[in-house]
Structures are given as structure tokens and as C-alpha cells.
Protein: DDE Tnp4 domain-containing protein
Amino acid sequence: MAAVSFDMTFSYVAAGWEGSASDQAVLRWAVTSGGLVVPEGKFYLVDSGYANTPKFIAPYRGDRYHIASFRGCNRRYTGEKDLFNHVHAQLRNVVERTFGVLKARFPILSRKGGIPYPYRTQVKIVMACCIIHNFIRKVNEPDELFELYEHGETQENVDHGDQQVRGQAREDDRVAGERVRAGIAQQLWTNHQRRVNRQQQDD
Structure:
């Protein structure tokens, strides 16, 4: 599990969990024991495999989420949840682009059959690759891989917004998370409606 900044660097990496572990279980460990800290008043955008809480905002389930589904004649939004999911997908796409750079630079991470080293060495390799990735991003400009992935919208491993949430968040966290998400969605919708009204008046 990793947290990614909008500059395409890793701000947190948890390596070593089994693939069968639920996203929610890894996140719970990261927050309680693994050193992941969410700054006060901030939140992370997460995919639909996580529960929606005040500090980890997930997309609305049951509404379209795939970026490609909003293109062309499908750009008109059906409501505030639909708009929220589009904005969420656009912002969270930086995760896919960041991992695209990482795996393109270090093919061993996506090697068929896994990394051919003992478990402890595997964990160290993952962490080392992420550290080198960050170093290159901050020091080595320009970089052809970052330039290749920086402005695109990759479709690799894209969340379609319908993943099953494995593991539960506390009820009070879910309620508070829904309040935060609904407030954001409502504000986005209000701003969108104002833009649409101004455009209609201009026409």
C-alpha cells in the first residue's frame, strides 16, 4: 500500500503484506502502527476498495467512475455524486501514473512470478525502488519516464468504483466520512451549476 502526492512521489509505502490481506486491514495497520499520519484538516483520496471515512475519501459506489466513461457526449453529469466521482477519478489518476513510472523504471517489480529473492529482500527492494523513484523526481529533471506519464490519464489498473470493501471501518467513522464526502460533492455541484448557468446566459 502506498500514498502518493500530486507531484508523483511516494509519501508513504507499506511493503511486505500478503496479497490476500484486505486493503482496509493494511490501512488500519498503517494508521495505528505503521506511521501513516494524515495532517489535520486533510484527507487522502482512496479507491473503492476502502471504506469511506473523514481522512480517507472513497468514490460513491453504484455511480460511474471510470475516466473514459465521462468523455465525449457522456460528459453531462447526472447529479452531484456523478460529478464527485469524475473529479475524484481525475485527481486519483496520479496514483496510476506514479506506479506506471515506478514499474517502467524497475521491471523487477512487475516480474511474472514475483521478485526472485527471499521475503525480507523483496521488501527491501520495493522500498529501495520507491526511494530511488522519489530521488529521481526531486533531483533529476527532466526525466523521460516522468515526462511520459506526467500529463496522461493511464487506464492501467484503473478502479471502476465497484470494488468490494473487505474489512470494516467504525460506524462513527463511516457516518462522519459520509458527511465530509457529501459536503464536498454538494459544493462541487453548486459550483458546476453556477458555471453552467453563466454559460447559458453568455450564449
The chain has a mean pLDDT of 88. The first strand starts at residue 2 and ends at 4. The chain is about 45% helix and 5% strand.
